[in-house]
Design brief:
CATH topology of the largest domain in chain A: Rossmann fold
Number of domains of chain A: 2
Radius of gyration of chain A: 22 Å
Structural class of chain A: alpha/beta
CATH class of the largest domain in chain A: Alpha Beta
CATH architecture of the largest domain in chain A: 3-Layer(aba) Sandwich
Distance between the termini of chain A: 56 Å
Oligomer: homodimer
Chain lengths: ~250, ~250
């Protein structure tokens, strides 16, 4: 049995909470947050607390708050016996060095309020200082996910960068595509099957081999036509840079 | 019953062929292609032909070849009674104006050899000159897909541009993400659940609302850190342009 407390009430906190609840070997001691309204979503199933000075002992304290609040929240669990971890891809483990035993428990996924995520497939990236703490985090992660990885701060930094690229930037491309649809009175949903298949395809084919399109073919006629279509668009620079970057890969 | 012949043996031809085969109301008259090896994949189930001067009559001739070969292939069906369509997003309907009755039958999807696509969900974008031909294409499209759209050449041009953006460019972002993983000795598959969820998310949330990350927050500290990580990378320009484009959207 691992006793866990969660500090934070946002999307990451909520998804981890639900995953822990399903597992008999995890006991959720407390969910702690300033927002009493948000705490209500947890209060039926566990003890909730808005007073950070009254935190009970646990084996692992998971700080699941915005990056810039991690250090501040960690002040409240400086003197606990349990291990303190944060869940951020972009923050180094040292941010928690004020806590005696500390580490990282980073689920590599985008979580939103109303979208159920199958936590068993979500990669959990762990970091700790010694093997006992690593084992503890490993045990907890393995209870909720089939994809557990030891990733040090330098590699996690790289991984966070890739997450920005494949999640944030990709979403922006979806936005641009949908905007062009709307401008042309096409239903934005028309792109959905293509978007799904593009994501699914690279499970069978490497992105290098899956690449198609005018930039891959060096088809400058089509590229010029597209740039002409985009001449008044604020997204022209995106088209230019992406096409140039693809073209360089396939000389 | 609609009698269809397919000119071409590539991925689009093969996927349309399979979808037509499943439907009792479509008769595939011939599959025509120069590549006799490629024709073999079709020859068990229909008549195949490598001699373009011997094409039999049909209701609809579907030219499913590379963009730059469409006009040339259309020469062989100049004098048929049936309707001649191409399957390209980037080529105007007028490319077939040498054929008496002509139009466009554009499936908005990325097709690859070994990946089965559920054609029923693939949007089929149609264009024709008169209502009788439009009705004919509509009838054929509705037999294989639940998502049939009338899209004129100007709109299809816009749609093709969006396909390049959400398919080709997105795939390139996947490539960049996987490259960074490989450089850091992380398994490239670690990104897959995030990629899948990013694509799935916008079925519930608009891409505008789904946007997260440092550029959306205006978090210049993280952006600078990422640019520092990419300082020797050929993909730095992609990061800069994408971040700037997102940031402009969320002032």
């Amino acid at each position: 049995m691992i006793r866990v407390s969660i500090l934070g009430t946002g999307n990451v906190a909520a998804h981890l909470f639900r995953a822990f609840l399903k597992n008999e070997d995890v006991e959720i001691v407390q969910v702690v947050g300033r927002n009493t309204e948000a705490l209500r979503a947890f209060s039926k199933q566990t003890d909730t607390l808005s007073d950070f000075t009254n935190i009970a002992e646990a084996d692992i304290f998971i700080i699941a708050v915005k990056d810039d609040a991690i250090v501040k929240v960690s002040e409240y669990v400086k003197h606990v016996k349990g291990m303190v971890v944060h869940t951020s891809g972009g923050v180094s483990m040292d941010a928690l060095s004020g806590c005696r035993r500390h580490g990282v428990f980073y689920p590599l996924q985008t979580f939103s309020k109303n979208s159920a995520v199958d936590m068993r497939s979500v990669p959990i990236c762990l970091e700790a200082h010694d093997s006992a703490d690593t084992d503890l985090l490993n045990a907890l992660a393995a209870m909720i996910s089939e994809s557990v990885h030891q990733v040090d701060s330098a590699c996690r930094k790289a991984l966070h960068l890739t997450a920005v690229i494949v999640n944030n930037f990709t979403n922006h491309l979806y936005y641009i595509g949908q905007q062009i649809c709307v401008e042309n009175e096409l239903p934005a949903e028309i792109l959905q099957p293509l978007i799904r298949e593009t994501a699914a395809k690279i499970e069978q084919l490497s992105p290098y081999d899956a690449q198609t399109g005018p930039a891959r073919r060096g088809d400058h006629e089509t590229i010029s036509m597209h740039l002409e279509q985009l001449k008044a668009s604020k997204f022209k620079a995106v088209y230019e840079v992406m096409s140039a970057s693809i073209e360089k890969l396939y000389p």
